Amino acid sequence: LDAHVVVPGAPPLVLTGESGCGKSAALAEWTARWRTQHPDDLIIQHYTGSTPDSADWQGLVRRILGELKRAFAIPDDIRLQPEALRTALQEWLTKAAGPRRVILVLDALNQLATDDPTAQQLGWLPVAVPPNVRILTSSLPREPLDALRRRAWPELPVPLFSTPEIAPAAQAYFAIFSKKLPSALVARLERTRAATNPLYLSAVLDELRQFGRHDELEARAHEYLSAPDLPALF
């Protein structure tokens, strides 16, 4: 992500990968660090699904326009009509062209509301952006990702854990709470294919660290780890 953002005129970048692999976490962690290290950059981030209103594409566009209006003293009024909003972001990013870097972080576009075709087809999202603008986004394999791929934007796959990465991750997580996983449990985690999914692994570990009966810990872990995937686990 660092290398991509510093390239002048770099095209938008799409993070891909299965649900729970860490796309949102990666974007959030990167954004927090980049904002600290580059305070002059304007970063506008949006996490679809984080609130009930976050899936509305019109609200998303108006929010970005508001941020641009404040940052660049754009005198234009923010449009309210859907027809005008479909092209507004392209026009306003052009007004923000200049030396200051603008980074849009748009997470989980697949969670945009499905009642308006404009949302999932991404007709509101600019196809071309000024050289000072970067767009970082993510999506599961849904209609928005199909729309992004038709634009031929580069993709950055976020991989699952490999089997050798499971034990260090689990032990590091428990160490945060001054706890240690029994070796038998670590071995069981390594044999559980679903545990290569970071969200699955963290959910199991979070439940186990709060389980108060040590003599029943392995039985409880066996119950959780019998779930073949995230839906079954939850």
What does it look like?
The protein has helices at 2-5, 23-37, 57-72, 82-95, 117-121, 143-150, 163-176, 183-191, 198-209, 217-225, 230-233; strands at 13-16, 42-47, 102-107, 133-138, 155-157. The chain has 234 residues and is of the alpha/beta class. Strands 2-3-4-1-5 form a five-stranded parallel sheet, with helices on both faces. Helix 7 (163-176) crosses helix 8 (183-191) and helix 7 (163-176) packs parallel to helix 9. The radius of gyration is 21 Å and the shape is elongated. The model has no long low-confidence stretch (mean pLDDT 93).
What labels describe this entry?
5-stranded parallel beta sheet; 234 residues; alpha/beta; 47% helix
Summarize the structure.
47% of the residues lie in helices and 11% in strands. It is of the alpha/beta class and 234 residues long.
